[in-house]
Design goal:
mainly alpha; 2 helices; rod-shaped
């Protein structure tokens, strides 16, 4: 957060209160938009991870059986 919003500003007029409320609302909208962007990024990264896991499993399936057990042990935490 680049700007700090004080929770108890010293306000004197109705206009001061309206400005303060609008600033709080703008900050809430900004945070909500950031949260939605983060959520989209998280979902995109989850999908990319699943793709990589699928590709890794497919690659492991093409390895000779003798070496497959070694690779599976080495990659078990990554793939599962």
């Amino acid at each position: 957060m680049n700007e700090k919003v004080f929770s108890q500003p010293t306000l004197e007029t109705d206009a001061d209160y309206e400005v303060a409320i609008e600033q709080y609302m703008a900050e809430m909208r900004r945070l909500n938009e950031q949260m939605n962007n983060d959520r989209s990024d998280i979902e995109r990264l989850k999908a990319e991870t699943e793709t990589l896991k699928t590709e890794t499993r497919a690659l492991l399936a093409t390895l000779p059986t003798k070496n497959l057990e070694v690779y599976q042990c080495q990659t078990r935490n990554f793939v599962n």
